[in-house]
Amino acid sequence: MRCRYPGFCAPLGALLFATALAACGSVGSGNGHGALSEVALGRRIYRHGVGTDGKPIQAFSQHDIAMVGGQAACINCHRPSGLGSNEGGYYVPPINAPLLYAPRKLDRLRLFPSLYHQIQPQRFKHRLYQPRMRPAYTRDSLGKTLRTGIDPGGNTLAAIMPRYQISAADVAALDAYLHTLSAHIDPGVTATEIRLATVFSDNVPASQREAMLSLMREYVSYYNLNRREDLARGRFSPYNRSEFVPIQRAWTLSVWELKGDASTWRAQLENYYRKDKVFALIGGKVRGSWTGPAAFCNAHHLPYLFPDTELPAWPPKPYGYTVYFDAGLALEAQVTANFLADGVAGSDSVMQLAAADDYGRLPARVFQQTLGKLEPRVKVQQLTFHGRTDLEHDLRSLHGNFNRILVVWPGEDVAGAIAALAAVRPDAALIFLPSRAIDAVKKQAFSADFASAFRFADPYELDPSSHVKSYETRAWMLTRRLDLSHPTLMFEEYYAMSLLQAAVFEISNDYYRDYLLERVEDESQKDLNPGVFPKLALGPGERFAAKGAYIVRLDPDRKPSGLSRVSDWITPTS
Hints:
Elements: H1 13-17, H2 38-48, E1 58-61, E2 65-68, H3 75-78, E3 85-87, E4 90-92, H4 97-100, H5 108-116, H6 122-129, H7 139-148, E5 163-165, H8 168-178, E6 193-201, H9 206-232, E7 250-258, H10 265-275, E8 280-285, H11 291-300, E9 304-305, E10 322-323, H12 329-341, E11 349-355, H13 358-374, E12 379-385, H14 387-397, E13 405-409, H15 414-424, E14 430-434, H16 438-443, H17 448-451, E15 454-458, H18 468-479, H19 487-507, H20 513-523, E16 550-554, E17 563-565
Parallel strand pairs: 6-7, 6-8, 8-9, 9-10, 11-12, 11-13, 13-14, 14-15
Antiparallel strand pairs: 1-2, 1-5, 3-4, 15-16, 16-17
Helix pairs in contact: 2-8, 7-8, 9-19, 10-11, 12-13, 14-15, 19-20
């Protein structure tokens, strides 16, 4: 990622998100159980709304709103952790194993964030102040509650809670799964510390790595110092924040370095994890495909917050365990295709040149698929090149043979690809490139006429100073005498660390990894963005915090970025 700013260096949201998730593969014949265990069948009911017979679960919410399959899945409101959610004036209580299968008790620490950290209507607070005590759930009482909305204490649940048409086999399977749901604190947490790690690949420039690590280590020290000071002050704030201090843990940060080809990274992460079972991974940077690391995180249910990568695992899946800033080159390919599909370029054909590596193949494929769906009449021709010499040859062969719209995915060797464009200077009205090529184009000092042809898909904020949080973030770094050698990367790391801090505070004493991700989703909607991206927010299950980009052109007179927008913010539609 480039240093963009040289001047800078001195009803429930969960229900709104509810879409029918695909059922878990084939379930055999007859009773539909196949090879799935009872716990696995219960998990499928909870996450996908598919019963033990393989058919969609049916239910009614608000008395007469029909819900089927994924719409009725428990995960939509109670979330993957089972710890529930709060939004839109509704309180969804936790149903994870330690709380569902025990008598309800008042828990001030768990309720505190819901009461005081959110703006909610009075009826919401009234509901929390009257907790409606009940005995522990059993399988029988669970079935009664699901069908009738009456809990074991005789309390009628809110009308928004679906009333299910559910079989005894479904109840048994769901009961078995709920007994496992967030039943034990996850690895990486002790009575006194939370173990974290960050990941760098060995091909990341040393200066970038050091800038990012210096910020992260300083933030860990800052967090731990504040905790020690709070512990030393005793009950400095009775019945408020001081109650949370004893349950907070110190942070430790390990550095995991990945070597060699990206195809080996998952195995290397497995080796690190066997020796150091951290609670979460955060920040860091890799140059290469994130497919292997994403599979590793999903396999171990290990959250990774905001690795810097231009090649996230694609296509995206909801509720994955890696949270990204954006979709990288895939997003830029989609945005470019959306821009061209709107007819801005006025062309019925596009020539696409893609490097024969992951940095070229992935965006080229996504671009072609997206444009094909949005505007089938536009013909996309494609050539694949291997290095600068090959690209120069392809560019010369195109002279006069295409309709003056060129899309180039330079691959890992951006400088070589831009040098090829400089050598040939193709006769194109518009040349579209990814944002990672902006610096290389600027360094070539193209003539004004030729430079005017370049367009870039750019997800970054052109004026970070427009965000109030940017001043606070910059001041935080400068007061700690950090060298802002790579401000974009360092601002990203600050956001990741501050969002982690906010989420950990909201966790209270519930150190479950799924719950951490849910709190990250919720806290991301608050004003923590320091301005690297125009907008950062996550909905339930979403894993890309920035969801769009601008199409921009070079404009040396525009400070600090040297870019001007030629489109509104584009959020891809396909």
